[in-house]
Amino acid sequence: MDIIKLFLLGACGYLLAALYDIALLYKKTWLARLFFAGFFLTFVPFIFFFILYQSPHAVGLRVLLLVLMGLFLLLTLYSVLMELPLHGDGTLYTKGTYSLCRHPGFLWYSFFTLLTALYFWHAPIVWVCIGYIICNFALIMLEDVVLFPKMFPEYKAYKKKTPFLIPF
After folding, report:
1. Does the first or last residue of the chain, that is N or C, have fewer Cβ atoms within 10 Å of its Cβ?
2. Burial readout 59-76 (b: 16 or more C-beta within 10 A, e: otherwise)
3. Closest by alpha carbon to 143, among 112, 113, 111, 98?
4. Number of independent structural domains in the chain
5. Would the pTM count as exceeding 0.85?
6. How far apart are CA 27 and CA 113, in angstroms?
7. Could you give the CA distance from residue 164 to residue 158 in angstroms, rounded to a whole number?
8. Cα 147 to Cα 24: distance, rounded to the nearest angstrom
């Protein structure tokens, strides 16, 4: 599959994720369920990277990068797909990884994506990975500035006490 098509596939996932948030804001549950697929669509290109390309690195470095990628992928999945359903009740969730920063999923995902770019060390993949981070950043900016303040009345207070991205 062409690298540009892979980028567009992932970028469509971010668009669907934004539409998911908008559907939640307007309480369109059936639409939100449909658009939820966008979160999974953002990951599909990474599967193709592993099918179509190989890492040029020595085995030891490949293993280290894969372990770190796995760790940050698990953290991403936990923060975005598991932590909120397990501990959230539909109100603003401010505990766990969401007490570190307002968008921990972005933080973990960015590390995963940068490690993926490093793993393959192939310029087109690096550019696609940077593009995905930019798409994800645009999504969290939309959430942070427009959507979440409308969805959660207490979001302004949360913004004052919790950092945007850097947990320190």
Report:
1. C
2. eeeeeebeebbeebbebb
3. 98
4. 1
5. yes
6. 32
7. 10
8. 9
CB 149 within 8 A of CB 160: no
Residues in the chain: 168
Position 113, amino acid: T
Give the Cα separation of 41 and 56 in Å (integer).
Answer: 27
Residue 167 lies in a domain: no
Q: What's the pLDDT tens digit per position in 15-54?
A: 999 999 999 999 999 999 999 999 999 999 999 999 999 9
Residue 52 is assigned to a structural domain of this protein: yes
Domain containing 143 equals 3-161
Three-state SS for 136-163 is HHHHHHHHHHHHHHHHCCCHHHHHHHCC
